[in-house]
Amino acid sequence: MNWQFAIIAIVIGLISVLINSLFSTxxxxxxxxxxxKMGKMTQRLIDIFRWV
Length: 52
Prior knowledge:
1 helix
């Protein structure tokens, strides 16, 4: 009975690794893009308020 649980745990682990590898790269790229845009917007706001 314990070996069946071990096989189920291994299969679930492999599926989670597969899902993680499929979605991690696009999510990282999207996060980098958003972070870059936020940095540019923050810099613009700093430049605007510097002259106020």
